[in-house]
Design goal:
By secondary structure, the protein is an alpha/beta fold. Helices cover 44% and strands 17% of the residues. Strand 7 and strand 8 form a beta hairpin. The longest helix has 28 residues. The protein binds one RNA strand through strand 8, strand 12, helix 7, helix 10 and strand 25.
RNA sequence: GGGCGGUUAGCUCAGUUGGCUAGAGCGCUGCGCUCACAUCGCAGAGGUCACAGGUUCAAAUCCUGUACCGCCCACCA
């Protein structure tokens, strides 16, 4: 600091209210400028790596991201301070379908579609969008204080990552794990693309079950089928019944006439039909239902696709061609009814698939797509969690979900009929039917010698690039030093909603392509909801914007609150007012510092030099600090973030501020003894600095600000200052017990004062009776604490037999404490107060007496517990007797 | 049809292997003298731990069942 005047003498200039705005901006810039977030291959250090779940470039970040990224930042900062080479690798995801959708929506505002622009121009537009939102996301992450290595920012469509995507496709293709084929897939008519099974959201809806009469050829009979999608009958190519169904046995092999289309269709036996459901006869539409498709294969049925890509009916639907599927449904039903072929309509509850991205009803459709065979990839991904190589937290909750999905995994449809994404690296020879998967089109076709290639039009599922994220971002397929050093990563923090989409697939790809798990621990954080427990969403308008909260309360306050409200993997319900908690805590820290600054010349924390001068309060707070250090670390290691933060919060506010700072005030005044003064100051500074170290992962900004002020600018940064170690030799259960007695005496006196309405201005005279010599000495030695904090003038021990007139009484441990209140005391109030206390004790005593007279308890419970209970009972009894005796004296 | 989570103070939630008088924050009540802080301090009120059984010396905690809320999975036409 400049000149002879320390800034600590000018503490009057420190504002009473903490203003985070400049502080946060300043330190973030400083950290980046100093390169403190950079991580490089360093053989002297162990790496600790997290790759960010890359946010979609569809929009700005919401509170869920803020929560998720806060957790990641906490672990990165924690490990960095512990001396790891901590890499947090940031980036964003192109989010194929989602991003294409938002850009198309933008275009629609000017009445344009992507087809008006053409593929190239449209993709150009999406890149512009990506620039804008990608930057916004990075801006937001920085604002939250995320300590990412920004030099390493990646995007899933970067050249490097795109190369990795193609490489993976080619390897899997050549291995026979990727194939192209015609199967029933989930088609979103609005997005105009196939989607994977995981992208379908099933919702319970109330629909109808229509019972339709199909005439049996050459008879007067009808076969009645029930369907929830009558329009699909236009594509029917059979009716199926259970082979053992007595009702229909005689019809098997006969022919039915498909109404409206007048097509002859066979009646076939198939065990898949459930005779109990509907009529036990099923219309079979192989092109529009996965089950029917299977039946069709077994019976060699035709597949008639009656739909266009936008879910209007095509020419194969005859008279219904051109109609939308739902209009056609109405018309089909009406026509059937007109012909007397509609038997009845029932209400029917069933689940209907909707597009995960646009909520449109999914249409199962026979279509030629690309798939990945998953069974083989899934096996090792199950093994690594079963043998404990990869841990999921909280395991009880999600492990089963993960395993269950992998055990029942189905092939992954990876082709998308979109423009935004990684183009499938497959080339078709235009001269023959040759098809090759490769990075670039080959020179010549090895089959026909042709040179004319055409690339597949489709792009890949967006997750086909994200599942490579932990290693594609580190340079794969090159064997880079980064990859060798930082992979496998250590921790993945993400939401449980993408276990299938992302987590499980990353495990599979990591094991397949790196022969190693992608991360050792997966922490699944809860979902941020609104006050009523609803998911935050744009459509509900109940979202809370992180940037708004930061502007209003500060990033520290936001982070603090989110973590305080979270418990392991549990969802958190959030209201804006909750952020006051974080703001208030920052302000508390600020003022604790302000108080210290007022009393400091230079902030020295050489507290160990003054060991000979420690008082009880000093030994106590140092002991509490060590235990807090242990608790903060242990809870972090166990993914109990809120317990970790609560521990340091409670220590700082309710032990350090409420008690320690209050207790040392007399020692800080100018005319106090110099050594005593320095003892207290150095300890206070040490506690303050250490608390900042412990708090830094949670509230990085204010902790740095305070830390720097306390270091007089000598330290580089709290970002890299060493994480505190608990000093076992400073832990003292004795000091803690003695301090507890002192605190309890103070609280008891305060309670009497408050209950008896003793004005603060009047000082009390405390008398106490106590048989225990050691404790008596303890009380006398620390009487200055009681005097100071309980507004007591004198403390005096009196003989056990002495009567104290007109005094309020309390029993703390085995000491009777009297506050004589001559003239002030209202006998009735005091009687009442004691009566209540006695009553409470009587209840406790009754319970304990019963317990201790129970033979079973005495013999079966651990002796330690029995002993504890006995002691407890003795204490209660002693306390009650003392109170009763004093109550009697009042009469 | 399976699986998972939740039900504890007016509100939002802790309570880790069963064992002190079930805790915190907010809110509420009373009082605020004091050289950090009213975004504060001190004191206090407030809970039959969803319900019913069971196991145990002992249950908020373990088991069984019920109710309600929420999520996930499953091809029931």
């Amino acid at each position: 600091m400049e000149g002879s005047e320390s800034k600590y003498r000018q503490s009057a200039d420190i504002p009473k209210v903490y203003d985070p705005e400049d502080v946060e901006e300043h330190w973030y810039q400083e950290w980046v400028d100093k390169g403190l977030f950079n991580a490089d291959v360093n053989s002297d250090k162990k790496p600790f790596t997290i790759v960010i779940p890359p946010p979609n470039v569809t929009a700005a970040l919401h509170m869920g991201h803020a929560y998720n990224n806060t957790i990641q930042d906490i672990y990165i900062r924690y490990r960095r301070k512990q001396g790891f080479e901590a890499l947090w690798l940031p980036g964003t995801d192109h989010a194929g379908i989602a991003t294409q959708n938002v850009v198309e929506k933008e275009l629609r505002k000017t009445n344009q579609s992507r087809f008006d622009l053409g593929r190239e121009a449209f993709v150009e537009k999406v890149w512009e969008w990506k620039e804008q939102y990608g930057n916004r996301i990075i801006f937001q992450l920085k604002k939250m204080g995320c300590s990412c290595d920004w030099r390493r920012e990646r995007f899933t469509m970067d050249e490097g990552l795109s190369r990795a995507v193609r490489e993976v496709f080619i390897r899997l293709y050549n291995k026979g794990l990727i194939y192209k084929g015609k199967y029933i897939i989930n088609w979103c008519p609005r997005c105009g693309t196939a989607i994977s099974d995981e992208e379908v959201e099933y919702k319970e809806v109330t629909g109808h079950l229509w019972y339709i009469k199909y005439p049996v050829k050459d008879s007067d009979e009808f076969l009645i089928v029930a369907t929830t999608r009558p329009e699909t009958m236009l594509g029917d190519t059979a009716i199926a019944v259970h082979p053992e169904d007595g009702r229909y046995k005689k019809l098997i092999g006969k022919t039915a006439i498909l109404p409206l289309m007048n097509r002859e269709i066979p009646i076939v036996p198939d065990r898949q039909v459930d005779p109990e459901f509907g009529t036990g006869a099923v219309k079979v539409t192989p092109a529009h239902d996965p089950n029917d498709f299977e039946i069709g294969k077994r019976h060699n049925l035709r597949s008639i696709n009656i739909l266009n890509n936008d879910a209007t009916l095509n020419e194969r639907a005859g008279a219904y061609a051109g109609m939308d599927r739902f209009a056609a449904r109405k018309k089909v039903v009406a026509d059937l009814e007109a012909q007397g072929l509609l038997l009845k309509i029932e209400e029917h509850h069933h689940s209907v698939g909707h597009c995960h991205r646009c909520d449109t009803v999914i249409e199962p459709l026979l279509s030629e797509q690309w798939f990945v065979k998953m069974k083989e990839l899934a096996k090792p991904a199950i093994e690594v969690v079963n043998d404990g190589r990869l841990k999921i937290h909280p395991a009880e909750r999600w492990l089963k979900t993960y395993i269950n999905w992998l055990e029942n995994i189905r092939d992954w449809c990876i082709s998308r009929q979109l423009w935004w994404g990684h183009r499938i690296p497959v080339y078709y020879c235009q001269e023959c039917d040759q098809m090759v998967a490769s990075q670039e089109p080959p020179e010549t076709c090895e089959k026909c010698g042709g040179h004319n290639w055409k690339q597949d039009e489709d792009v890949l599922d967006t997750w086909f690039s994200s599942w490579l994220w932990p290693f594609s971002t580190l340079g794969w397929p090159e064997e880079t030093p980064d990859l060798r050093y930082f992979y496998p990563t250590d921790l993945l923090v993400t939401g449980p909603d993408i276990i299938f989409f992302w987590v499980a697939r990353m495990v599979m790809s990591g094991l397949e392509f790196m022969q190693e798990i992608p991360f050792r621990d997966v922490y699944l954080n809860g979902i941020v909801r609104d006050q009523k427990g609803r998911k935050m969403s744009k459509s509900l308008g109940n979202g809370i914007d992180p940037v708004e909260i930061i502007d209003k309360f500060s990033a520290d306050a936001m982070r603090f609150t989110l973590i305080m409200l979270s418990s392991e993997g549990q969802d958190i319900n959030l209201a804006e007012s909750h952020f006051e908690m974080g703001r208030n805590f920052s302000n508390k820290i600020w003022n604790a510092y302000r108080f210290l600054a007022m009393n400091l010349d230079e902030p020295e924390d050489n507290y160990l030099d003054y060991e000979d001068h420690y008082q009880l309060a000093d030994r106590w707070i140092l002991s509490r600090l060590q235990k807090t250090i242990e608790a903060v670390g242990a809870n972090l290691d166990n993914f109990r973030l809120n317990d970790s933060l609560s521990a340091v919060y409670h220590f700082f506010w309710h032990e350090f501020c409420d008690w320690y700072l209050e207790l040392i005030k007399p020692r800080l005044v100018q005319d106090a003894d110099a050594v005593e003064r320095q003892t207290a100051r150095s300890i206070a500074v040490h506690i303050m600095k250490t608390a900042m170290d412990l708090l830094h992962p949670y509230i990085p900004f204010i902790s740095e600000e305070i830390y720097q002020r306390l270091c007089s600018g000598e330290s580089k940064s709290i970002v890299v200052s060493a994480w505190p170690d608990a000093k076992k030799e400073l832990i003292s259960d004795k000091a803690e017990a003695e301090m507890t007695l002192t605190q309890n005496i103070i609280s008891a006196v305060r309670n009497i004062r408050s209950e008896m309405n003793v004005p603060p201005s009047s000082k009390a005279e405390l008398k106490f009776k106590l048989e225990d010599e050691a404790k008596t000495r303890l009380i006398m030695e620390n009487s200055h604490y009681v005097k100071q904090l309980a507004r007591v003038e004198t403390i005096e021990q009196i003989p056990a037999g002495e009567k104290v007139r007109a005094a309020a009484v309390a029993v703390v441990e085995n000491a009777e404490i009297f506050i004589p209140l001559a003239g002030l005391i209202d006998l009735e109030v005091e009687k009442n107060r004691l009566g209540k206390e006695i009553q409470r004790l009587e209840g406790q005593i009754a319970g304990l007496t019963k317990k201790l007279s129970n033979e079973q308890f005495l013999t079966r419970a651990p002796q330690e517990v029995v002993k504890q209970e006995k002691e407890k009972l003795d204490n209660f009894r002693e306390k009650m007797e003392k109170l009763k005796a004093n109550l009697n004296q009042l009469n």
